[in-house]
Amino acid sequence: MLYDITIIGGGIVGLATGLKIKAQRPELKVAILEKETEVACHQTGNNSGVIHSGLYYAPGSLKAKNCIDGYHQLIRFCEENDLPFEITGKVVVATKEDQLPQLKHLLERGLQNGLKGVRSISIEELKELEPYCQGVGALHVPQTGIVDYKRVAMAYKKNFVALGGVVLFNHKVLDIKDIKNTITINTSSNEITTKVVINCAGLYADKVAGMLEKEPLQIRIIPFRGEYFKIKKEREYLVKNLIYPVPDPNFPFLGVHFTRMQKGGVEAGPNAVLAFKKEGYKKTDFDLREFLDAVTWPGLQKVAGKYWKTGLGEYKRSFSKAAFTKALQELIPDIKPSDLVSGGAGVRAQACDREGGLLDDFAIKETAKAVHVINAPSPAATSALSIADKISELALQKV
After folding, report:
1. CA–CA separation, 225 vs 273, rounded Å?
2. Contact (CB, 8 A) for 271 and 328
3. Residues 208-244: pLDDT tens digits?
4. Residue 398's domain is classified under what CATH number?
5. Are residues 201 and 101 in the same domain?
6. Half-sphere exposure of 115 toward its Cβ, with a 13 Å CA cutoff?
7. Cα–Cα distance, 306 to 322 (Å, whole number)
């Protein structure tokens, strides 16, 4: 069968894109290729489940626009599809005096991005919201919430299929060839022919783009593993909702934080360490080719040279529960190593350019017959339906 549009990757962005395309053009033949046996097995299914408000992102950036629009679309979708979610609010806490200017900057960004109700709160108000938290300053962000993104992704898939879309599992993309008026995708199961390709391959977005495009991308997808602990049931009372630190402005990561999960329990983390495999969820996971692909990239070498002390601190927390606990104690002094049990891990697909820049914004590259989603880290899950609007707009122009 010749498909009009084929989407590579059954994560939340790929599924949302398929849903948007079929909703607009139900007559089109649209397929989603997924190498696993179900959807949302990687970034989507291993994230913290936070519905982000749009606090952190530069006004006017793709992250800011898509997060805020995506937030409202996600809430409506959950309501219409009876998916459980909670708008819990969160606190962002400065634990040191030198973090107060950055906290003020975050407040200004939130207000510029149109967040309603975001405000500075006193330490007394912080204690009312999170009794066991300490700090020298704090913001309250009422819009933040929690949801199970695996369930959201499954609902996107259900709606996509109901509209006539096709999801093909066990279809790992091996090669792509542009032959005259169609594109042939060679997969681990069979060949797929299509008019247009949408690359939502996440951790492998750079590799998929390289299969199709003659000009090499000037970025590399670097895998960063984020490891979590869970708080023991009897100590979950230490966290009422969500507690975040003031993030380091040099990095596109939010720092170790506490998150009450919609599916139950409280997570603490994550750290951020280089994974030695694209899908390296365990410390022992290693793929020589993928490891060399990352460490020989000039951009990562420049990042490592500049921020090696920070990187060592992240690895120390990875291998030392005591060090991880110490980082958590900056927010909640009463937390103890005995309160923590090993949780899961996720791997973030972080685009890094040749000059050592860790791309902080979403990045979409359009070519004659393809749309490549090159960088879609957090808050991509929150933003997926909004990102999908842009992707589908670009793809439909090519059909």
Report:
1. 5
2. no
3. 999 999 888 899 999 999 999 999 999 999 999 999 9
4. 3.50.50.60
5. no
6. 29
7. 26
For position 252, what pLDDT does the model report? 63
Q: Are 234 and 188 in a shared domain?
A: no
What are the tokens at 19?
């849903």
Residues 398, 323, single domain; the answer is no
List beta partners, residue 166. 31
Structure tokens at 85: 């979610």
Instruction: For residues 383 and 332, state if they share a domain.
Output: no
Q: In angstroms, rounded to a whole number, what is the distance separating the alpha carbons of residues 352 and 337?
A: 34
92 neighbors 115 (Cβ within 8 angstroms):
no
User: Collapsing DSSP states into helix, strand and coil, what is residue 184?
Assistant: strand
Question: Same domain for 20 and 167?
Answer: yes
Nearest to 246 by CA among 89, 76, 398, 97: 97
* CB 85, CB 75: distance < 8 Å: yes
Same domain, 168 and 194: yes
pTM of the shown model: 0.96
202 confidence band (pLDDT: 50, 70, 90): very high
- Domain boundary residue, one of 333, 353, 373: 353
pLDDT digits (tens, 9 = 90+) for 251-273: 767 788 999 999 999 999 998 99
Q: Based on the fold, state whether residues 306 and 332 are members of the same structural domain.
A: yes
Provide the H-helix boundaries in the chain: 12-24, 62-80, 100-112, 123-129, 149-162, 205-212, 288-295, 298-319, 321-329, 380-396
Q: Which residue has the tokens 């299914």?
A: 45
3-state secondary structure of 167: strand
Which residues constitute the domain of residue 113?
90-142
50-51 β-sheet, strand order: 50-51, 145-147, 85-87
Task: Check which CATH number belongs to the domain holding 234 and give it.
Answer: 3.30.9
Q: Is the pLDDT of residue 168 over 80?
A: yes
Structure token pair of residue 296? 């020989």
Assigned token pair, 208 = 């998929």
Residues 118, 163, single domain; the answer is no
Domain tally for the chain? 3
The b-or-e profile of 98-132 (16+ CB within 10 A means b, else e) is ebeeebeebbebbeebebeebeebeeeebeebbeb
- The SS3 of residue 4 is strand
Q: How many residues does the chain have?
A: 399
